[in-house]
Amino acid sequence: MTVTDEMYRRVVMAVPEGIWVVDPEGRTIFSNQRMAEILGVAFESMPQQSCFTCVYPEDADSARSNFARALAGDRRPFDFRLQRADGSPVWVSITCMPMNNDDGVPFGLLGMFSEITERKLAVDALRASEERLWEIINVASVGVAQTDLTARLEMVNDRFCAIFGYAREELLGKSLRELSHPDDLLNIVEQTRRLLSGEIPYLCVDKRHIRKDGAIIWSRVHKSCIRDLAGQPTHTIVVLEEITEAVLAQAALKESEERFRAMADSAPVLISLWDTGLNPIFCSSHLLAFAGRTEEQLRTGGFEDLVHPDDLERVDAAVRAAVQRQGAFEIEVRMRRADGEYRSMLTNGTPRFAAGTYAGYVMITVDITEFKRKQEYLMAMQKLESLGVLAAGIAHDFNNLLGGILASAELISAGGEQGAPLDEESLLRIRTAAIRGGEIVRQLMAYGGEESQAFSSVEIPQLVNEMLELLKISISKRAVLNVDFPAGLPSVRANTAQLRQVVLNLIVNASEALEDTQGVIAITAARVSGDDYQPAVLASQDYVSLTVSDSGCGMTEEVQARIFDPFFTSKFAGRGLGLASVQGIIRSHGGAIHVTSAPGRGSRFEVLLPVASEPVSEPAAPAEPGASSEGDPMAATVLIVEDEEALRTAVSKMLRLRGFRVLESGDGADALNLLRRNAPPVDVVLLDLNLPGASGPEVLAELQAIRPGAKVILTSAYSRERVQAGLGGELNWPYIRKPYQLAELTALLLSISRGAAGGQ
To answer: Per the database record, which ranges form the Response regulatory domain (predicted)?
Structure first.
């Protein structure tokens, strides 16, 4: 071997590629050490190796095809796997060249093998990663595309194709500009220029595109730029989200809001929207004009300043209670207009919901000031119009009472002339007629707001039985009374006079419903619970139920709907106040009244009154006529100051029969003169507060000056409250209301005069 041959051998043995020379059958002619290392065999065994036996079985056919191609002179490299001695595959890239003899006939093939296993695995991993990434992109819910710098599509996913209605093959190579709406093209081109130049890092714009079928769609376009290592742009990535439905919905919402605002601004009411925190989020133009403020001013707490201070707490409590239950509410409130005038307003609040979730309130406020004024005027006119009927009815009742009194008095007079015994029944009729007349007056005064509002514990059985005794000669003679009061019935908190009025009306009505036929009036009472009544109009507490029912003619539904109207009556000459005042009294007592009736089946009135919290105190029994009390009343002198001569004369005679000394005065000035003379001394003064000359309050004030500590009983036809108000809010003297019974007056005088007998 020459020196040159040795040098070449050493070079071949030192190169990092494997060198393998084989004959046309693949048998080894020569190899270097690196080739043995690639195959994982000893270098000494290389002469026995055949290149075809070292090819990985799955790549054998490809290797033979490429071997023949290279032997024919094709020097293009190719990749395949060899099988190492341990059976593992190794990837190699081979470049071959044929070796020819002097005749140009190939006798072998020289191959240079580069091991590329790591590179091949990396490429395969990268390819797999790219495939997975493409799968992800392809199933994305947004359109994704890659373009070159001229906006031509290089890659699109399925969603991108679906958005535009094209097949993938139709889109690839097409410019995005061809898909853009002409009116939006200049803007997106300018934005893309800024993106490629680096002025902006990315772009996001809402724009229109044109589908294959010509339909215009809206999309939100996100675009970013891919740059090389030198920072130069190479491609753009486009992410496209179709927002056509959202844009149309937003446009529809805007149109709806504009329609709502136009409607709210044109409606002659004040409209506002509130969020869940009771903050206004919309105010109509009429509301802003009413308040004289901007929407921003109202949003920052201006609403509270509009409400009258006296209404603020009530309104706030009502609104918050409605919000807590998320229910509707209606409330009347006084609100200050921009000119400073307080107007009566009616506000209706309705909860609003968005997708089933509570979102706040819609409030509509109506100015009802003029309506209330007209309503008050119409009510006044209605009362005036009804005054004729009312006066006729009352005159009818009083004429009946006076006729009864006159007839009874004449009967007594005729009996006296004939020496007959005193007619007790006629006297009872006169007494009953007077009581009924007083009840009619009280009824009118209660309707006019003048009735006493003093409350005390009242036993219903005792009160009803007292009324029955008085009504026996007035109710229908053909009526059978059935009374059922259980033992241990609790007392109620009530105004005695008003409760008598209730009983009077209900029993008289029941009697009149019998229409002169045989019938039954049933009066019952029981203790009940407010929880047992629906709808829930009563508080959760115990009540006494007083029921008056009859077997009379009954009422139609139309009549039942109107029986509590102030001037409605089904009677020929009725007063038109009975049941209206009954309902007002019951409501003022915190109770309720229920009616059940049908034509031909009678009627049932149930009155419910709250049970009193404190026990009933037994009233002192009135002194019987002619009864004597401790101490001798003969020594007591009573001054009666009363301008009604008939009443003064009758009371004076009765008191003298009871043993009192009585002085009479018909006016205030005469009474004061008598008191100043102090002859004879006066122990008790029965003072009417409505006098000619010096008035009752003036006489009372002068009496206290000239006779400090004098005992006085005040009397009037007005209620205790009105008398108290006329005396400056205080009533420190005993009071007896007209018309009073003489037994009641006698008992009161006896109790007062005991400490004054003998004069002062």
So the answer is: 637-753
CA distance linking residue 327 with residue 305, whole number of Å: 25
Q: 422 is written with which tokens?
A: 């005193």
User: For tokens 């000031």, what's the residue?
Assistant: 369
Q: Is 294 helix (H, G, I), strand (E, B) or coil?
A: coil
- Judge whether 130 lies within some domain: no
d(CA 144, CA 210): 17
Strands 216-227 and 203-210: antiparallel
* Distance of alpha carbon 566 from the chain centroid: 33
Summarize the confidence of residues 207-231 as an average pLDDT: 93
- Chain-centroid distance of CA 297 in Å reads 25
> By three-state DSSP, how is residue 333 classified?
strand
Element of type H or E holding 561: none
Strand ranges for 24-88 from DSSP E: 28-31, 78-83
Cβ distance 179 to 192 under 8 Å? no
Instruction: Verify that 461 and 598 share a domain, yes or no.
Output: yes
Q: Is residue 483 part of a domain?
A: yes
- Is 480 in the same domain as 600? yes
Q: Give pLDDT tens digits for 154-190.
A: 999 999 999 999 999 999 999 999 999 999 999 999 9
Asked whether residue 310 is assigned to any structural domain, the reply reads: yes
Does the pLDDT of residue 387 top 60, yes or no?
Answer: no
Among 177, 164, 176, 253, CA closest to 211: 164
Report how far residue 575's alpha carbon sits from residue 394's, in angstroms, rounded to the nearest whole number. 6
Same domain, 601 and 461: yes
The answer to whether residues 226 and 234 touch, using CB atoms and an 8 Å cutoff, is yes
Asked whether residue 651 falls in the same domain as residue 667, the answer is: yes
In a domain, 373, yes or no: no
Secondary structure string (H, E, C) spanning 104-121: CCEEEEEEEEEECHHHHH
Whole-prediction pTM value?
0.40
Q: Residue 198 and residue 678: Cα distance in Å, rounded?
A: 120
Q: Which residues contact 500 (CB under 8 A, 6 or more apart)?
A: 439, 463, 467
Residues 504, 355 share a domain? no
One-letter identity of residue 202: Y
More confident of the two residues 300 and 458 = 458
Do 687 and 699 form a contact (C-beta atoms < 8 A)? yes
Most confident stretch, 471-475, 496-500, 598-602:
598-602
The residue among 358, 337, 253, 255 whose CA lies nearest residue 292 is 337
Q: Give the structural domain span for 81.
A: 3-122
Average pLDDT, the chain: 81
Which residues are CB-contacts of 698 (< 8 A; sequence separation ≥ 6)?
668
Q: Are 592 and 586 in contact (CB under 8 A)?
A: yes
Among all chains, which residue has been given the structure tokens 């400490």? 755
Which amino acid does the sequence have at 456? S
Helix or strand or coil: residue 262? helix
Distance from C-alpha of 183 to C-alpha of 547, rounded to nearest angstrom: 84
Q: What is the dihedral of CA 624, 629, 632, 636, to 10 degrees?
A: -70
Phi, psi of 573 (to 5 degrees): -130, 35
Pick the closest to residue 648 from 715, 725, 601, 731 (CA basis). 715
Place of tokens 């507060």: 689
What is the average per-residue pLDDT within 697-712?
83
DSSP class per residue in 416-462:
HHTTPPP-HHHHHHHHHHHHHHHHHHHHHHHHTT-S----EEE-HHH
Residue 482 region by backbone torsions, left for phi larger than 0, else alpha for psi between -120 and 50, else beta? beta
